[in-house]
Amino acid sequence: MLDSLVTSKTRIKLLLKFFSHSNSGYLRSLAKEFDESTNSVRVELNRLTDAGLLLAEDDGKTKVYKANQSHPFFQEIKGMVSKFLGLDDLVERVVKRMGNVEKAIITGDYAMGIDSGTIDLTLIGKNLDQEYLNFLIHKTYEKINRKVKVEILEHDPGNLSGILVFGN
């Protein structure tokens, strides 16, 4: 969902970094962490600072950035990031422990930016562990308070529309 709202991958990484925890960082360390150019990180840091979402403090010759907790949208952005990370955690666990997952695609309302309370996830792969998947779905509901419906396909039909969260 963040991908559809925010078009810059670097900006998404920065929002996740600063709004998931009380993190701080400086330009070069962020560029290295994200494996991005310092210029692309600098541009996004400037945009987020100009918008008032980040604060920049001088620490000697280095500027240290952190989330502006007094910004009117701080709690809303923090909530969106938290929901996104909960889903991200589910996908990561599915991919690591489910077997041979080729693709994971968020489809349905959530992929269109509509929070209906149900996240539709299509997994493409063979011999996937359905029992473990059911366990993860229950745990994810407890964590992000969203129902997850999963469809498993052995082959990619080629006509799925949504947000690709794993695979090519």
From TrEMBL:
CDD domains: HTH_ARSR (cd00090). It comes from the Bacteria. This is ArsR family transcriptional regulator. Transmembrane segments: none annotated. One of its GO terms (biological process) is regulation of DNA-templated transcription. It comes from Algoriphagus lacus.
